[in-house]
Amino acid sequence: MTPPLISAELAAFATGFTLDAVPAEVRERARHLMLDALGIGLASTQWDFARTTLAGLRELAGPGGDVPVIGHGQMLPLRDAVVMNALLIHGLDYDDTHPAGVIHATTSVLPAVLGLGTRLGSSGRDLLAAYVLGMEAATRIGAAAKSGFHQIGFHPTGLVGTFGCTLAAGRLLQLGQRQLVDAQGIALSVASGSLECLEDGAWTKRLHPGWGAASGITAATLGKHGFVGPGAAYEGRFGLYASHLGPELLAKADLSMVTAGLGEVWEVMNVAVKPVPACHFTHAFADAASILSKDWNGAPIRRIVARVPTGAMKAVCEPIDKKLRPANAYDAQFSVPYSVATGLRFGRFTLDALDPAAYQDPETLRIAALVECQSDPDADFPRYFGGEVIVELVDGRTLRHHEPINRGAAGRPISNADIVAKYHDNAARAVDRAHADHLLHAVLGIEQGEAAALAQVLGRAAQGR
Questions:
Q1: Domain of life here (predicted)?
Q2: Residue-level pLDDT at 367
Q3: Which residues pair with 182 in a beta bridge?
């Protein structure tokens, strides 16, 4: 008997999906993940990449628009607003990550459902249901590749995020199963995301989640109107996995993971909240070095060894010359040597580490140059993004700390109270406390609210604009 198509199974799940079927603790965690993302979006309004992107999108869109842009007091047309809002959430690389899928799912799914929900006048309950649905789909689709997309050079947040957003948008648009199957097939032809940007610190990674969100909305809307897409979007001869993994990595993938446990195991609870504003692969090293900071206390260093999971080496240790001397904030966020040096010197890695004065600081660069990255094939990756830092001092002492489970992962979860504290730290960079509190209550109370009302609060201009 021929097994059902994955797209058909996902479509059946999506069309029958209701918020009442989601356990209370999952809904609560989902609301806090949304809060975390929107706080980061507010903080991003203060950075040049936000102003540059908005200027370009504003020129393309022309006057008008019906969806608010986070913290800017401006409106853009739906798909432009979705691209912009996703860029703000993802732009500082401080957004949540699903470790098994190696995907920032919230940063594409949330802007998609918030933008489309605003356009449609959706209730807060429908917005939250679509968000949870999109998260459950995107994380599973990413996990099935067993981190293979990264190895080839594709960014799952944009590539896989498109499919999660297609299903979430289809839920808001009330698509039938046949329409949702077509929509996922359409998504296969518009999903994208290249990691070439990591080679020179280009800004294009910031565009990926928003492009995936806008593409997902487009695919769902075309499917609604009868546009025909291929059925085997995932397992087909030229489907997502075969075309983006190649034969060797495809053999290692487990496509059964896409639909395993749907409606029973909630991947929202396995999403890791970032405690450090950098690539998740670097967190264990920033934290380990920060813990060693007091014992080190500035003593002369002979060398530093960072033991890095083999699957993370390409992203955060290569090419080594760019990791030792970051040329921009993106280089800094994807550098184990810089993360270790910053943690040792300052006892923590914050958004301040992304300032040019920080990543160009001679003393920090001197310490970074002492870091030697070594592959650790025994690390439990990608389940966890662990790491070990070993500091060999000139006086003969050796300081070492191992973080096998990165802070924020399922084995060391960040509490909802911690998320609220992080939200306030980020929001304070852009808005006053009263505005931050207003938004917090709108997000955490979304089940009693409306998508458009939340978007309006979120769109109010940040300070100094």
A1: Bacteria
A2: 98
A3: none
With respect to residue 427, please indicate whether it lies within any of the assigned structural domains. Answer: no
Strands (E), 210-368: 301-309
CB count within 10 Å of CB 263 equals 11
In a domain, 363, yes or no: yes
State whether 165 and 185 are in the same domain.
Answer: yes
Burial of 92 (0-12, 13-18, 19+ CB in 10 A): buried
Three-class DSSP category at 100: coil
**Residue 200 forms part of a structural domain:** yes
One domain, residues 228 and 265: yes
Instruction: Give the model confidence (pLDDT) of 239-270 as tens digits.
Output: 999 999 999 999 999 999 999 999 999 999 99
Whole-angstrom Cα distance, residue 312 to residue 319?
Answer: 13
Report how far residue 229's alpha carbon sits from residue 96's, in angstroms, rounded to the nearest whole number: 31
Tens digit of each residue's pLDDT (9 = 90 or more) over 48-86: 999 999 999 999 999 889 999 999 999 999 999 999 999
Can you give the CATH number for the domain in which 348 is found?
3.30.1330.120
Would you give the DSSP letter of residue 262? T
Query: How far is it, in rounded angstroms, from Cα 73 to Cα 282?
Result: 34
- The answer to whether residues 377 and 336 belong to one domain is yes
Q: Which residue has the tokens 């405690």?
A: 275
- Domain housing 209: 6-275+440-459
Q: Is residue 16 part of a domain?
A: yes
Backbone angles phi and psi of 175, in degrees to 5: -70, 150
pLDDT at 465: 47
Q: Whose structure tokens read 């947040």?
A: 157
Q: How many CB atoms lie within 10 A of CB 52?
A: 11
Do 110 and 165 fall within a single domain? Answer: yes
Q: Tell me, yes or no, whether 222 and 240 share the same domain.
A: yes
Token output for 233: 């979007």
CA 89 – CA 111 distance, rounded (Å): 9
Q: Report CA-CA distances (Å) from 159 to 43, 72, 111, 254.
A: 25, 28, 16, 18
- The candidate with the shortest Cα–Cα distance to 54, out of 71, 35, 37, is 71
Q: Of 173, 153, 267, give the one whose Cα is nearest residue 219.
A: 173
pTM reported for the whole predicted model: 0.90
Strand partners, 154: 194
Task: Count how many domains the chain has.
Answer: 2
